[in-house]
Design the sequence.
């Protein structure tokens, strides 16, 4: 019997984000083989923060910055500028109290290095696996015999998107539970576009009341 894992993504404040706590808790009550949460755990000088760059090109949600691949400086990519968020050791980095944390099997801290962005729970913005995450999620899931991954949380157009795509790259069958996802941008450049991308890639966007969730059973 296939083993399934639930991955709960946490991120910066998203409008309506707390409203998905209830469906996430419903999922946490299902008999997944593993229930894992990820949280951003940024240093105070993280490269994505508006406070890490001089004006006028440091406007949160508007500006971007080009960063270099820490493992190959010839590779670069542009990332959005955000307000400072999820700073290590602060209340803003903790999983919100509405989530039934006692039902989680493990928590991953990611984005721990100041020089690289890490939306995905599996790898940084360049696909590197490093100490930017507290452990190698793909290796852990494979060690536990997981074959299906259900992804939920914040934000649908960033952390959920890249986590789902990387999970598929790692060979897992991937489902995204729509009622348990909230996005920064819900339009064509945001969640609407991500849903279309998932369709092209073969990543399933499902309902919490659908058979994929209801048929989850613990493996013997």
Sequence:
């Amino acid at each position: 019997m296939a083993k399934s894992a639930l991955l709960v993504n946490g991120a910066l404040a998203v409008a309506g984000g707390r409203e998905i706590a209830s469906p996430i808790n419903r999922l946490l009550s299902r008999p997944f083989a593993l229930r894992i949460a990820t949280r951003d755990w940024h240093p105070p000088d993280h490269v994505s923060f508006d406070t890490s760059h001089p004006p006028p090109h440091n406007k949160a949600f508007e500006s971007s910055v080009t960063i270099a691949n820490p493992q190959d400086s010839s590779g670069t990519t542009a990332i959005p500028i955000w307000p400072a968020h999820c700073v290590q050791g602060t209340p803003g980095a903790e999983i919100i109290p509405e989530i039934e944390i006692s039902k989680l099997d493990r928590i991953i801290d990611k984005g721990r290095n100041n020089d690289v962005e890490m939306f995905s729970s599996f790898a940084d913005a360049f696909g590197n696996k490093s100490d930017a995450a507290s452990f190698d999620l793909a290796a852990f899931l494979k060690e536990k015999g997981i074959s299906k991954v259900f992804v939920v949380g914040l934000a649908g157009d960033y952390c959920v998107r890249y986590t789902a795509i990387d999970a598929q790259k790692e060979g897992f069958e991937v489902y995204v539970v729509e009622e348990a996802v909230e996005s920064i941008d819900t339009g064509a450049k945001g969640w609407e576009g991500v849903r279309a991308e998932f369709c092209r890639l073969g990543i399933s966007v499902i309902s919490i009341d659908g058979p994929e969730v209801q048929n989850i059973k613990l493996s013997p």
Remarks:
- The chain has a mean pLDDT of 92.
- The two ends are 8 Å apart (CA to CA).
- The helical segments are 21-28, 137-143, 159-169, 191-201, 211-214.
